[in-house]
Amino acid sequence: MQYDVVIGLEVHAELKTKTKCFCSCKNAYGSSPNSNCCPVCMGFPGALPILNKIAVEQTIRAGLALDCEINKTAIFERKNYFYPDLAKAYQISQFEKPICINGHLRVFDKDIPINRIHLEEDAGKLIHQGNISMIDYNRGGVPLIELVTDALKEPHIESAEEAIEFLTKLRQIYVYAGVADCEVEKGQMRADVNVSLRPKGSKEFGTKVEMKNIMGFKSVYRAIKYEIERQKDILDDGGKIVQETRRWDNDKGESYTLRTKENSEDYRYFPDPDLLAVNISDAEIAKIKENMPPLPKKLKEKYIKEYNLTEYDADVILAEKEISDFFNDCLKIYDKPKSLSNWIATEVLAKTKNREQVKVSAENFVWIVKAVDEGKVQRNAGKELLASIWGTDLIAEEEAKKKGIMSGLSDDVVEKILDKILIEKGEVVSQYKLEKDPKILNFLVGQVMKETRGKANAQEVMRKLKERVD
Ligand code: ADP
Ligand code: MG
Ligand code: ZN
Asked: Please, which pLDDT band fits residue 409 given cuts at 50, 70 and 90?
């Protein structure tokens, strides 16, 4: 049978704040275990939480960036369950009245509805070593926002591809808004995936299965593909889907049952008597809106309209905020967006794959791009120069002089001279086309070099020449 797939995402992101959500412990990654803890985040009896105002502001900022409505009154509730990484045996979260509701995020051509974004505290981290499990509470109490899409509203996410695009766009918006770093490898962004199938065209929703806490977009992609196939097989065999939570095992490439049926009632949510309701004024919202950093959508318009970049180039530059920031830093000193974006899209991105940092200063980079634009350095020599100063303290101009690559002619000039020689030596060219004798090519390169008084790069001339005659 043919099925329609319905996918709902619950995405957790750790907020960028100096301190934790309800105490003044540091919100830092990579500290030595249990060094950023206090009685509040360790759940000592009698310790009282104090809400971090910046965490609330960050949540509002996330909501505004995703076209959410902001609730004027938000409430913190206790979500009760026991697990060793949760010292209090309840998590402070939000249930009835989250900070943000009713947003949407554009994915391909669909505005995917967002049900809510709420603020809660993260749990500690369990570390398993052989037969021993250890707990690091440093992460316990770190402010976390959970975004929940509304799969029961149209349009919904229907494929693994759309889910990944949603997560990619979401990450991009959080990073640009300055809400969260979302470094997936550090567990700063994690997704739960809900999947159900229903017969094609049917209006009634199928039973959903949830896969919890999947790390990494590739794993999310594989987990969804796997789950769709698993449910298809069951339904095709006339079976029924059991509502359950499954754990995705990325190494094995399969999932297994964690627990069946778990509903919000099971958590016995109730308003936390230790925390007051949060009142959010229009003035506060307006202020956060005013200070919102430029988001990808707006920057994209600018890059296309003002800088004449193609849509593709704009997307390439915008994919990572660090790259876009670098582009803007370069633009401040060299007003040639096309040249800069070309160089960044090819040379810089090749060197910064896997989210490595940009390891050249805007000044040095611009010097190279400009020197090539002005014909002072050949393009290939410029690329080599960039590679040789990458990650060092070397200065582009000094290196170019040292390497003696600054006598070169611009591409345009070389092309013109090449044109001229090809016409003048038309007979020789015809002869080459018949005989394919490499010596003839050497002769032609020699002619070009003579004309440029040795200033061109002979290899480069040979490459261009071959392009023309072959
Ligand atoms: P739970 O209480 O089990 O976490 P929620 O109602 O909070 O369930 O929904 C979690 C996510 O699952 C949301 O994104 C929601 O839109 C989505 N969802 C709900 N029903 C379905 C369904 N039948 N198929 C796919 N996703 C669903
Ligand atoms: Mg859930
Ligand atoms: Zn603490």
From this structure: low
CB 170 within 8 A of CB 11: yes
Helix spans in 44-194 (H): 53-65, 160-177
**Model confidence band, residue 460 (pLDDT cutoffs 50, 70, 90):** confident
Question: Whose atoms come closest to the Cα of 10: which ligand?
Answer: 1
- The model's pTM is 0.84
Where b means 16+ CB within 10 Å and e means fewer, 395-404 reads: ebbebbeeee
Using a pLDDT cut of 90, give the percent of the chain over it.
76
CA distances from 33 to 88, 91, 134, 138, 343 (A): 19, 21, 10, 6, 43
CA 206 to CA 232: how far, in whole Å?
A: 12
Whether residue 231 is predicted with pLDDT greater than 90 in this model: the reply is yes
Give per-residue pLDDT as tens, 50-102: 999 999 999 999 999 999 999 999 999 999 999 999 999 999 999 999 999 99
**CA dist., res. 293 & res. 195, Å (int):** 34
| Best mutation site among 3, 10, 194, 268 for ligand 1 pocket (most ligand atoms within 8 Å of CB) | 194
Q: ∠ at Cα 155 (152, 160), nearest 5°? A: 90
Beta-bridge partner residues of 120: 144
Tokens 């915008």 -> residue: 318
pLDDT in tens, 329-383: 999 999 999 999 999 999 888 888 766 789 999 999 999 999 999 878 888 889 9
C-alpha dihedral, 284 to 289 to 293 to 296, nearest 10°: 140
Backbone angles phi, psi at 337, to 5 degrees: -55, -35
CB 35 within 8 A of CB 150: no
Nearest bound ligand to the CA of residue 209: 1
Q: Is 245 in the pocket of ligand 1 (CB under 6 A)?
A: no
Decide whether any atom of ligand 1 lies within 6 Å of the 267 Cβ.
no
Q: Residues in the chain, how many?
A: 470
Per DSSP bridges, beta strands 270-271 and 143-149 are: unpaired
**Phi, psi at 319, each rounded to 5°:** -55, -40
Q: 111: which strand partners? A: 106
Which residue owns the Cα nearest ligand 1 atom 11? 8
